[in-house]
Automatic annotation (TrEMBL):
One term of GO molecular function: oxidoreductase activity
Organism field: Aspergillus carbonarius (strain ITEM 5010)
InterPro entries assigned: FAD-bd_PCMH, FAD-bd_PCMH-like_sf, FAD-bd_PCMH_sub2, FAD-linked_Oxidoreductase, Oxid_FAD_bind_N
Keyword Nuclease belongs to the record: no
The protein's name in its UniProt record: FAD-binding PCMH-type domain-containing protein
Pfam family, one: FAD_binding_4
Keywords for this protein: FAD, Flavoprotein, Oxidoreductase
Keyword Flavoprotein part of the UniProt annotation: yes
Domain FAD-binding PCMH-type: 60-231
Family: Belongs to the oxygen-dependent FAD-linked oxidoreductase family.
Length: 495
């Protein structure tokens, strides 16, 4: 493993890797010896199997030795203390939407399933919503709707709260409010020692900063206090186009990204997608305007392109985020990259997209499969808001130009195609990265929430942030529990 100078101090405190792998169920037996014995489930139980089925991607549905479902921060504290002391390996899962196996699950170990901790409480006097880590965004939006407020969260309602927030979190409101993590007022965290602490601007401010993008390197967040804001009806939906409009779409997308600062209420996701059931390779735009205004001028470049169908309407965020959800249970791979907002890069990406669809057709075994290439703006306005709110550890403020993010999203239903789509997903990203570098349009940032296990998003955070995250991880987890005993997720010690 190649280790940066920044990560070396953290690795130096890790004990020898002689951890139990739980072949005999020792770790599960340890949990049964606590007051949580009735919340520990084995493969023969319905609760265990229902928990596994909640994982979004079929290929990420692993079979741990047991699953434990805490109901409170105190439960989480007891679990972590027991597992850390016995050097057991474990995984932590909230929504389970990450697509690669082992990100939030484990074989031969314990999975801490946070899904029972799923409530949202609105504190009107403080203008804050307290959200527990097992909640999905659809439930958060639905709970807050009667109060006329909302929070910046996932654009797919089925996505879990916790991983989204500690990975940064891009929402419909990023151009107005910064990333979702920038709007967290307080994190309640269970540390490896079992201690429960609050991290905010005045209490443990270093941990507070590190959690805004630093993922699961410090402990388990058991509550998020998010700043709310007034929620009006949005205007949005999906617009479907023929693939022949690609050149116009790219021109409109580059222009839109360069002008978000002129109207930060506008949001765009461009999607090029092939589906084996329809046999069609189409273009779809998710257009959202976060005020009740139809056909805002910000979307002019897209609106002038003739479309096939449109669902654009006035709706609540709960409705719009349910429309953007994907079908759970299929096998998935995501790979992602960030580039300068350059039409040449986008044209190359779509050319590769079309070529890789043909490669898949020649080899695929699945009766259902789909290949999507998604384009999203990451203008410098996003990070400017982050800095105004105290900053995060994503490191985007060091880039002066407007950026675009691409996501290659492949799904299929036959396990025999796992190697095929993994190879295609890694290869198309590699080709695009090489091309972008050749024309000076590359960028090192990798969005953690979309990254594949073959990627290392922390490397793109910048050396200053790598050093800071490493230092905070060492301070709050001196024995390296979340570096070694929790093998899932992206580790600062592996930069």
């Amino acid at each position: 493993m190649k280790v940066s100078i920044a990560a070396a101090p953290l690795l130096s405190i890790l004990p020898e890797a002689n951890f139990l792998v739980d072949n005999m169920g020792f770790c599960c037996t340890t949990l049964e010896g606590t007051s949580l014995r009735d919340q520990v489930f084995y493969p023969t139980s319905a609760a265990y199997n229902e928990s596994v089925k909640q994982v979004f991607a079929g290929n990420a549905r692993l079979s741990p030795s047991c699953i434990v479902q805490p109901h409170s921060a105190e439960d989480v504290s007891m679990i972590v203390s027991a597992l850390a002391q016995t050097q057991c390996q474990f995984a932590v899962r909230s929504g389970g939407h990450t697509t690669w196996p082992g990100a939030a699950g484990i074989e031969q170990g314990v999975t801490i399933d946070l899904s029972m901790m799923n409530s949202t409480t609105y504190h009107e006097d403080k203008g804050v919503a307290s959200v527990l880590p097992g909640a999905r965004w659809q439930s958060v939006y639905k709970t807050l709707e009667p109060y006329g407020v909302t929070v910046p969260g996932g654009r797919s309602g089925a996505v879990g709260v916790s991983g989204f927030l500690i990975g940064g979190g891009n929402s419909f409101y990023t151009a107005q409010l910064g990333f979702a993590c920038d709007n967290v007022e307080n994190f309640q965290v269970v540390l490896a020692s079992g201690s429960i602490v609050n991290a905010n601007r005045t209490s443990h401010p270093d941990l507070y900063q590190a959690l805004k993008g630093g993922s699961i390197n410090f402990g388990i967040v058991t509550k998020y206090d998010l700043k709310t804001f007034p929620h009006e009806t949005l205007w949005g939906g999906l617009v479907i186009y023929d693939n022949s409009t690609t050149a116009q779409q790219i021109e409109a997308g580059v222009d839109f990204t360069n002008n978000i600062h002129n109207d930060p209420y506008a949001s765009w996701i461009g999607m090029w997608g092939y589906n084996s059931v329809t046999g069609q390779n189409i273009v779809a735009n998710a257009l959202e305007y976060t005020k009740p205004v139809a056909y805002a001028p910000a979307f002019e470049g897209f609106l002038k392109i003739p479309n096939i169908t449109s669902t654009m309407r006035l709706a609540r965020i709960y409705d719009l985020t349910n429309e953007l959800g994907q079908t759970p249970g299929y096998r998935y791979i995501y790979t992602t990259g960030t580039y300068k907002n350059d039409a040449t890069v986008l044209r190359k990406a779509i050319d590769l997209h079309n070529n890789y669809i043909e490669q898949a057709k020649a080899q695929v075994k699945s009766s259902y499969w789909a290949m999507d290439t998604m384009i999203q703006p990451w203008p410098k306005l996003f990070s400017q808001h982050s800095v105004e709110k105290g900053g995060n550890v994503l490191g985007l403020e060091r880039f002066d130009e407007n950026l675009i993010q691409l996501l290659f999203d492949y799904s299929w239903n036959n396990q025999g195609d796992d190697d095929l789509f993994r190879r295609l997903g890694e290869s198309i990203l590699g080709e695009l990265n090489e091309f972008a570098k050749s024309i000076g349009a590359d960028n090192e940032y990798v969005y953690l929430n979309y990254a594949d296990k073959s990627q290392n998003p922390f490397k793109g955070y910048g050396e200053k942030n790598i050093e800071f995250i490493s230092r905070v991880a060492k301070q709050y987890d001196p024995d390296g529990v979340f570096q070694v005993q929790v093998p899932g997720g992206f580790k600062i010690s592996e930069v």
